[in-house]
Amino acid sequence: MKNTSAIFGTLALGTLTLFSCTQEKKETAKQPAETSSATGTPSTGRIAYVNIDSLEANFEYLKNEKVKFEKRQAEMRAELDRSAQQFQNDYVAYQRKAQAGTLTQAEGEATEKRLMQMQQSLKTREEALTQQLMKEQMEFNTNLQKQLDSFLADYNKSKNYDYILSYTRGGSIMFANKSLDITADVIKGLNEKNPVKEAAEAKK
Questions:
Q1: 101 is in which domain, residue-wise?
Q2: Cα–Cα distance between 95 and 6 in angstroms, integer?
Q3: How far apart are CA 163 and CA 22, in angstroms?
Q4: Each residue of 170-194: pLDDT tens digit?
């Protein structure tokens, strides 16, 4: 019999993950190449970045969905915990009767069969809930990516950046010039376009 922590191990998916965001170089609104006064060579292009840690902490839609996801995860864990406890209780009761010699051979075999079925059912349910949780997380991440892509595409129509990078502390970008940080603009814009907020306003 798996203990509770082992059963729940496969459900520990962690917090919601935000994908890196990039924008393709605009072909219809190119800006003249800037020249470095130090080297006299053309610059590589306009670049900005979004601080993912700040975005995750301040994007209301993401925060709300994270709370819902964690609640759903807790409900799944509680369901498995109840089933595991029921199995444990039935197994202990069976052992006591077997040790006391109060079970006939037929009753013992029937109980063992029932316990095996309970254990298999618990395992199957665990796998199903794990897959369901992973599917929900993947669907949310895909939807979130679409929101970011759509917003940045509109945002960049007036900004004309060649690249919008994602930045996170400890990530692959070791240093970022704060003057290139557009996180505040992105958070403000995304919160204004918050699907939950728009749905609530539509009901008024």
A1: 4-13+26-203
A2: 23
A3: 6
A4: 888 888 889 999 999 999 999 998 7
User: What is the average pLDDT across 118-134?
Assistant: 95
User: How far apart are the C-alpha atoms of 66 and 60, rounded to whole Å?
Assistant: 10
Identify whether 18 is part of a domain.
no
- Residue 133 to residue 70: CA distance in whole angstroms: 10
Which residues make Cβ contacts (< 8 Å) with residue 41, sequence separation at least 6? Answer: 35
Does residue 21 fall inside a structural domain? no
* Structural domain count, the chain: 1
What average pLDDT does this structure show over 91-99?
93
In this prediction, residue 43 has a pLDDT band, given cuts at 50, 70 and 90, of very low
Give Cα separations from 127 to 7, 66, 100, 132 (angstroms): 10, 22, 36, 9
Residue 96 CB neighbour total at 10 angstroms: 11
Residue 15 vs residue 129, higher pLDDT: 129
Give the mean pLDDT of 135-156. Answer: 92
Residues in contact with 32: Cβ distance below 8 Å, sequence separation at least 6, in sequence order: none
- Any idea what the CATH number is for the domain that residue 117 is in? 3.30.910.20
